[in-house]
Amino acid sequence: MDRTDIKTAESLDLTDVAAPFEILTSLPFSLCRTQCVSYKDEILMFGGHLKRDCYSYHTIKNQYKIICSYPKNVELHAHCVVKLMNNNPNEINILSFGGSEFSKRHTLKMKYVSVWNDNKEIGIKSEKKNRVNEWIPFTDNKDIPYLIGRNQDDHRGARAVIGGNNNNLLFITYYPEDIDVFDLNTCQFIKHDKLPIENWIRCHCFIIKTENNLSIIKTKKKKHELMFFSQSNGLSIEYDEENNIFQFHKVRVCTSIKSFVFYGYVYINDVILFFGGHDNAEVGATREIHKYSTTQNKWTKSEHILPIALSDYVALLSEDNVYIHILGENDGKKDTGTYMKTRLTEWIQEETEIERQWITEEEEKIKIEEIKIELEKIKDVNIEKWKKKKEIEMIIEYWAHSLFINVGWIQDFNIIILNYIL
Hints:
This is Kelch motif family protein. The protein is mainly β and 422 residues long.
């Protein structure tokens, strides 16, 4: 690859960044809220916020080529794109949907054949015969155009994954707190439910544990396991396909990411990596990186940070699982898009000393949160019954052992102790 097209983190004068991020050739347009799919040596980019153009980035040639554009009557507002199952190694099928009662709804499909195919004659024949590399209406079994979503459904910022015993089920999570199961074979919604969460959702994290990661629950009645994260809400979701039932289990979200949304994320080897995020408040976009182990139920905050702060991220793995590609809009620069990559192996290593210290601090914060919850439960009970020397000593001991935690926590300890002794 031509070195003139790549800038390392060091060349950006970011001396506090040790992770080997590479800043790649500038994007052809700002990819705010783009949707991407990996395919062989390509990263396919399907539009963005009010941007209809679709591109292919060749990871070896370090070049872009336009694929096509969405139809002119389609307005993209945080749409959703998923890769459908296909046994043909020379093409992939793509599904795109989005919209709401406030913006025009669309459901389109594309059969993609590489635009980098050197055999142009074969490519032209295939394109004319099969209508490849263009968006066409998604149709039902009667070949009638079909729109995914009810009139009241708001799919702006929705997230979707493919699953099911036959990979025919589309799981969709969307605003404000909804989850649907759509059968792609019959073009019917077969399940609707409400997520047991506290905040509305958009541009969140939603993954399915795949058989490749050995995370499907192995029972005679196969169940499928999904995970959901948005701000302070975390859920492990079990779907019983035979009985068409959801079961929800709450998962704790670490303190340093619980205010954020709009992060990029990837799932590999039972680990979810979270890159950046935006809290729509004072902090804005963050450069922090977090890791969540789905098997150990453990959070880790990386000692490394992103080279630059981005908002409206998308992150995805290369098809060979070697690189993580991260695309987004520069925070505060609406006309600038940034594209970077990093090796996956950098993020699945053992914790460093700094990261282990963060884990210890986080455990202390968990204890504090648990005490606060207990205090809320007894606030209507005669507090005199709870004035025990041993309990107060326990609070003070937590305080003494946690002095290395951010000074802002001192006020929390004061509140806890005052609730006991006043």
